[in-house]
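hiii so my PI (J.) wants the whole complex modelled not just the main chain, which honestly fair. so below is everything: two entries, each one labled with what it is. i double checked the lines twice but i was tired so who knows lol
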Amino acid sequence: MTEKTKFEFLPHTADIKFRAYGTTLNELFENIVLAISSIISKDQKISTKKGKMISVSGDDSESLLYNFIDELIYLFDAESFIPVKAKVTLMGFNLKAELFGDDAKNYKDLDSIKAATYSEMFIKKNKDIWTAQAVVDV
Amino acid sequence: MFNKMTEINKIDENLYEIKKHGKMNVPIRIFSSEKILDMIKKDKTLEQAENMAKMPGVVSHVVVLPDAHQGYGACIGGVSAYDSENGVVSPGQCGYDINCGVRLLTTNISLVDFEFKRSAVLSEIYKNVPSGIGESGKIKLTDEQLDDVLNFGSKWAVENGFGISRDLQNTEDSGCIKTADASKVTPKAKARGRSQLGTLGAGNHFLEIQKVDEIFDKEIASAFGLKKDQIVILIHTGSRGLGHQTASDYIQKMERLYGFKNLPDRELACAPINSQLGKDYLAAMAAAANFAFANRQIITHKIRESFKKFFPKLKIELLYDVAHNIAKFEPFDINGKKTTLCVHRKGATRSFGPGRLELPEIYRKTGQPILIPGSMGTFSYVLVGTKKAEKISFASTAHGAGRVLSRTSAKANLSAEKLKAELKANDIEIKAGSIKGLLEEAPEAYKDVNEVVRVSHELGIGNLVARLKPLAVMKG
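here's the output for the full assembly
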C-alpha cells in the first residue's frame, strides 16, 4: 500500500472529511492515525521518539472509531502528544494501540481538532480493502 | 446535495418554506435571499434541517438562517426550539464548541494614533494572547480554580483581576450562567481545558482590530457607544477543548442510554430535557459556556494590557459579548400562549428586541447588540435585536458569513501570494500561525457577509447599525 492510498482527504464545506484504507482492520486503524497526524502536524515531519499505549472500546465499529479519534484528540490537547504512527491490535470492539510520536512543545504551527463526529461515518469492507470515513470538527 | 424533488416555497421576500412531509414534525423556514439559497442547496444544509425537523418535541418550525451551511448532525446557522416539558436537549444542536462567541471592545484611541503604532500593537497582542495549539496558556489552574471558572465564568475572571465589573454587565448572562455545575463536566474535558484558558485556538477563531467604517443607524450606534472612525476590537473564540469534549462526552452518554436507531442522524443523540441526563448535560453545557465567557474575558484583559503599553490614557470598554453555540430557556408566544422553550442555537446569534429583562439596562431600550464577524479580512457588522425576530425566528439571526468552500479546496485553489497581496491592498496587517491556516480562512471560502446582513436587515430579524473594517488581524 502506497502512502497515497493509506488515507485521503475529501471536500467538506466546514470541517475535514477523510477516508483511511487498510487490508486488515488493524492496518485501517493504524492509517487513521496517519490521517489525524497529518491534520495536527500540517504535514510537518514529527519525530517518533516518544511512545504511548492506549486502550479504546466501543459498542459498535462506529463508536469504536469515534472513541479512537476522540482519544487521539485528547492526547494532543491534554498531554501535548502528537501521534505519528501506531501499531494497533483489535479484538472485537476493543483495541490496544502503541502510539509513536512527539511532544507538541517541540513544534510550531500545529492545528487542533475540536472533536470527532459521527457525521458521514462508516467502516466497510469492499473486496479485500477496509475503508473508514470520518468527519472531524476543526 | 439537497433532494431536488422537495419543494421549496417562497412565502415572502427573503423567506422560504419546506412544508412538513414524511417524518418531519414541523416545517422549515429558510431566511435567505435567492442568491444565498442557491448556495445553501449545494451542500447538506437542508437535509440536516429536515433531520432537525424530525426530532421529538421540536416546536413550531426549524429556522435556517442566511449564513447557514452544512455541519454535523444539525446545520450551522440553524435554530430549533423544544418544549421545556416534553422536548429533548441535543448537544449536536448546540455545537461542539459550546459558547463559541464574539465580543466587541470599544476604545478611545484615534485612528491616526492607532495607525502609527499598528504593527507594534499587533505584535504585542500576538505575544500576549497564545493560540494554545501545541503550547499551553499562561494561566495555571488548580482543580478548585478550574471548578470556580466553570461555575462562575467571567465573574471568576474579574474577581481574579482579569477585567472590571462593568465587563460583566455587558456580557450575555452577565458572563456567568447560574445553572452551571462543574461536577457534571467529565475529568477528561477538564484535562483538555486546564491549560487552555486565555487562549485563542485555531480554525476560524481570530482577533481583529477594526475601525468603525460606516454608521447605518446613528441613534442606536450612539447608544452602543459607537462613532465613525473609532477603533474597536473583535474577539472570536469559544470554550476550546473543554467545550468540545463536553459535547462528545454527552453525545456518547445519551446514545448509550437512549439509543440512536430511531433518530434521523446519530449525531443528533438527545435526552429528554427533564431526565437526569438531560439536566446533567444542561448543567455541563452551562459550565463549558462559563469557561468560554471567562476565556474571552481573560483575552480582553490581555488586550487591554497590550494596548496600555502604547496608549497610557487608553480606555477599553466591552460593548457586548454574545454566544453563537448554546441552548437556552426563553419564553415565547406560541399560538397566543406564553411558553418557555429550550432554544438550540447552533451558529446563530440571539436577537432580543427592546424591553427584554434578560438584557443589561443600557440595551433594554434599544434591543441587544448583535455582533457578526465577517470572514478574515472582510467587513464585520453590528446589528440590533428586534421584536420581529422574537416573533418569527425564535429571536435569532445569523452569526457570520458562513463557509462556501471547503478547507481542502480553499488550500488547493487559492494562492497565498494573492491573498497576502489582497490583504495588503486593503491595508490590513496580519499575524498568523501559518499561511495554510490563512488560506483555509480566506474571504473566498465564505459567503458574502454583506449579503448575509442585508437579508437579516430586510427581514427585520436583526437590523443594521454599523459596519467595521479590519485594520489588523491575528489568527491562531
